[in-house]
Amino acid sequence: MTADSGLVELQDTLYNSSNPTRKWLHCRRRDWVLARIAACTKPNCRSLEVGPGSGLYLPALALVSDNVVASDIDDEYLSRAREIAQSLGTVQCVNDDITLSKFENLSFDFILCTEVVEHIADSNLALLELSRLLSVDGVLLLTTPQKFSPLELCAKIAFLPGVIQLVRLIYREPIVPTGHINLLTEKALKEQLAQAGLSISEEYKCGMYLPLVAEFGGTRGRRFLGWLESKLRGTFCDGLLWTQCYVLRRSQGV
Fold this sequence. Notes:
The protein is of the alpha/beta class. The chain is built from 10 helices and 7 strands. The chain has helices at 7-14, 20-40, 58-64, 75-85, 123-133, 150-158, 163-171, 186-195, 213-216, 218-232, and strands at 45-50, 65-72, 91-95, 108-114, 134-145, 198-206, 243-250. The longest helix is centred in the first third of the chain and has 21 residues, at 20-40.
């Protein structure tokens, strides 16, 4: 990726969007991740974030870890991570491909991989590597979109030529194609997790999107979507929620 691709600018916008639903969708996941970072890390741990994006979680990881590694294959994201790392002191930024990582087995007590596997064609291999890097008693925090959520389905239309210009006119904010090449259903992801020797300690789904309600419903629309999310979570319809979130550990005997 080039430095002018707008990826970091997009990431910054998502959590500060003037559109109430767009902001809520991303902050909902962010808040869950931050809470689990605080709850799942141990004193003196060594942490890894795979795909740090705009560096949103690096300060939280530095606060609870003796050492933090931020790894990515994208120079733009690594450049932002290095800027943030200068003020943190305990963060090291490394160019590393999670499908063929150069880190040693059992290297990390806590691994964060949020909104990454959907960008990787071979998520099976990425999960196997994440499992390999996780210490015996370590925790992996993983989030990724659900394949058939309305947001992902609508995104396929939103980024079509001609339509994208209209979407940008409505939002008046950076709108960049998602780059999601490997969207997984809950069933498919859980099968891959099991194959990688990872067991689920906690799972959570969040983020309800409906077209037009999100774009034109304002704060009332966002509140309605929050109410709808709460009704769908834990039901057979929760595949409609945007993000699936997991706290994972190595399976016994692995």
